[in-house]
Amino acid sequence: MLIGISLISFFIMHLAPGDVTSNEASFNPKASEESRQKLRELYNLDKPVIVQYTLWLKRIVKLDFGRSFSSHQRPVLWEEKDKNGNITKGLIQESLPITLLINLLGIVIIFSVSIVLGTLSAIKQNTWVDRSITLFVFIGFAIPGFWLALLLMYWTGVANQWLPISGLHSQGYLSLDSFSQTLDLLKHLILPVFVSSLSGLAGISLYVRNGMLEVLHQDFITTARSKGLSEKKVIFVHALKNAVLPLITIVGLSIPGLIGGSVIAESIFAIPGMGKLFYDSVLMRDFPVIMGILTIGSVLTLFGNLIADLGYAWADPRVRKGIIR
Amino acid sequence: MTHHLSQSITRAMLLFFLILLITSCSNNDPEVIDYKDYYELQSGGNLVNAMVGEPSNLIAMIAGDSASSAIAGNIFNSLIKYDEKLNHAPELAAKWVISNDQKTITFTLKDNLFWADGKALTSEDVLFTWKLVTDPKTRTPYASDYLLVTKASAPNPKTFVVTYAETYAPAIDTWASLHILPKHILENEDINNTFFSRNPTGSSYYQLDQWISGQQVTLKANSKSSQGPPNISYLTSRIIPDTSSQFLELTADNIDLMNINPIQHQRVFPARKDLGRKINLYKELGNGYTYLGFNLKKEPFNDINVRRAINYAIDKDEVIKGVLLGLGEPVASPYKPGTRWINPELSPYPYDPEKALNLLKASGYQKNEVGLFAKDGKVLAFEILTNQNKQREMTAVLVQRRLKEIGIDVTIRVIEWASFINRFIKTGDFNAVVLGWSLSLDPDQYNIWHSSQQGPGQFNFIGYSNKNVDKLLEDGRKELDPNKRERIYHKFSEHLLSDSPIVYLYAGYGLSAVNKRVQGIKNPAPPAGIYHNSYEWFMPKSLRRNEMAN
């Protein structure tokens, strides 16, 4: 499976014209074609694609993701130490933590807010509350992220200096204690997380709303109500539990998405994350980095599917016992 | 119960919005500073600027991207530099002497040169750097100029001698662009994969203080600088890929300097008086120009009348006004306006549609029933290719409109850079392109115009070939006397304009916006640009930003 995925991605990448020696900066009369040919040979780019793929495969089975072409031979995945003890960090190693943090925060926010909004609109079905929530999540879904981001940056950063505009740290943050450093980082993350979560609300909250409506019409809810349980208990203990079960699948399937960042959001907020890394690598035809990210992505996709299935079985005894599949 | 629940949530939400409203009303106006005309020089401070890309590494001969060379330029020295008026001037070398046969250059280094770590900088380092750049194992695209050196030696610690097989006039320029690297650190390192590229030791005004990957690169003043200390103690380059975000940071006073575009320069700043009060604008000509180039090997561009007709049919002033909002200069020679290499007698083809029509008719073209020119049943139509660059796209549209007016049908295609080069330029599979050349300061343009440079991947991809021009380019490379070279390149420009293998469109201004807390910037910019004297800039204490560190 993984070999299939990597083989296809490898070939698609090499179908695109050009390689790392043909970036815009090298279109410079001072850079000769002979030198570029020499570079191609040094990177094995002159060999047939299938030979290049075999070379790559030989390294990857040893978990060696290789070195980037365009950023001066930096390791793709993880740091390396040279003979003098100087450490060179890996590209993915440096970009991944911040992307993970933003996406995790985003998922937590999306799911918690969506469950609240979805439940609320289900209880208040067809009232103004329901309609305004639906309107709100759809506006959030439809609004262009970059536009909203720029407006918010202007409002919170220029017109009122509440929040930093871009980047991850303030100038001179290294002189702060670790608590203030964390606070500084969180301040920088408010806007990016907010903007990236907003578009995710629509899907999940409607999912919760519909799940809730379906559950509320089932017999056991009527039973619970007729037992004289408080409405609070009926909704939060009996109905909600069943309504959010399908969300487990969604959480599982969003695991591979955790390592993918949005190029647009990362560019606007100047966050050095995975989206920007991948995008730049594609433009530079930096094959080792592209393949590294794709491989990790496909491993996580397979892993996420597994987690979703297991999680479902864990949460729902009916699945475990084979009553429903 | 449900009623109660939703009520409390609604109430909480209302409260939240109320708080937002209240806080947004308490808009604290930033204090307005009254800038004086004159400030006492005070050293120190931290200048924060913005770049769109992160440097790939700080060894310029390997890097090649503009972010890398911008930062490495503050850390490393070359033997020679260009002064304010773009003449050669001493940097590490105090003087250089050219032998009588014009094949040997002897550089004498200045006294008391040191690396930032305190070790002496000698001609051994220069020799080492030359060996490095010419080593076949070094992954540099810039080796060819230095491979022309047949013999290099360092007879004593202050002398470096290079000998060329034959006179090579651009040689002096090549020694102004090669950053000298420290032998004592790199001797046993693999230059292609060394910590040095992210933690360099140089000899120029600044040394690396801190590099936070993907976020910022901070330089601090180098106390052992070969050129004396700079006034500003720290240079911070923040990496902000989006220029709109950069602009917000500039208006919020978080950065001091950024490159802006013509719309910001001509529209936003005049409309926002508050910005003008704290930010100065500068413009300087870049060393390059944008052009419409023809594939001379193809019909109909092998016909000089067609090329000239197109040249007459394009209104260059309109392009400059439309695309650059007036922030550009027309060009008639392939050099930077204002330098000695520009032939003052040449002027661009004027906008003259009448002449264009006559030229086309002279070549046998007739208007067909839909008003397009055609010859032997073939309509005069072609495709302009350009890469994803807003200014070039807009330029192509204006060209398209003017050519349509005289009866030439033009389509436009915009392509991503790597595909553009590999699929179309290298294969010669194009009609016309809108592109730009950015040039070095030496007038030699052999690689671009000599008829021998037409192979795949070489730079005369339009297929220009003129025996007179070939001869001039060959002579220009062998002539070291600047006055004689000037005559050669004036003549070359004349041929080029007359043959019209490309239509010169414009040389655009580079635009910078700099916070007024940075003082000492020359305005108007000298030919070498505003950064030329950046080591003399300073930030008066009273204007400095309050920062947690420094």
Quaternary form? heterodimer
Q: Per DSSP, what share of the residues of chain B sits in E-state strands of 2 or more residues?
A: 15-25%
Largest sheet of chain B: 8 strands, mixed
Largest sheet of chain A: 2 strands, antiparallel
How would the global form of chain B be characterised? globular
Work out the radius of gyration of chain B: 27 Å
Shape of chain A: globular
Helix count of chain B, per DSSP? Answer: 18
Strand order of the largest sheet of chain A: 1-2
Largest interchain contact = A-B, 79 and 82 residues
Strand content of chain A: under 5%
Tell me the helix content of chain A.
Answer: 55-70%
The averaged pLDDT of chain B comes out at 87
> How far apart are the termini of chain B?
59 Å
Computed structural class of chain B: alpha+beta
Secondary-structure element series of chain A: HHHEEHHHHHHHHHHH
How many strand segments of chain B?
21
Number of strands of chain A: 2
Overview of this protein structure:
The complex is a heterodimer of chains A (325) and B (550). Chain A has 325 residues and is mainly α. Helix content of chain A is 67%, strand content 1%. Chain A contains 14 helices and 2 strands. Chain A has a two-stranded antiparallel sheet. The radius of gyration of chain A is 25 Å and the shape is globular. In chain B, α11 (304-313) runs antiparallel to α13, α12 (316-324) runs antiparallel to α14 and α17 packs antiparallel against α18 (482-499). Residues 21-29 of chain B have low confidence and may be disordered. Helices cover 33% and strands 22% of the residues of chain B. In chain B, the strands form 5 sheets. In chain B, strands 11, 12, 13, 14, 18, 19, 20 and 21 form an 8-stranded mixed β-sheet that branches. A 4-stranded mixed β-sheet of chain B has the order 1-10-9-8, with helices on one face. A 4-stranded antiparallel β-sheet of chain B has the order 4-5-7-6. Chain B has 550 residues and is of the alpha+beta class. In chain B, β6 and β7 form a beta hairpin. Chain B has 18 helices and 21 strands. The interface between A and B is large, with 79 and 82 residues.
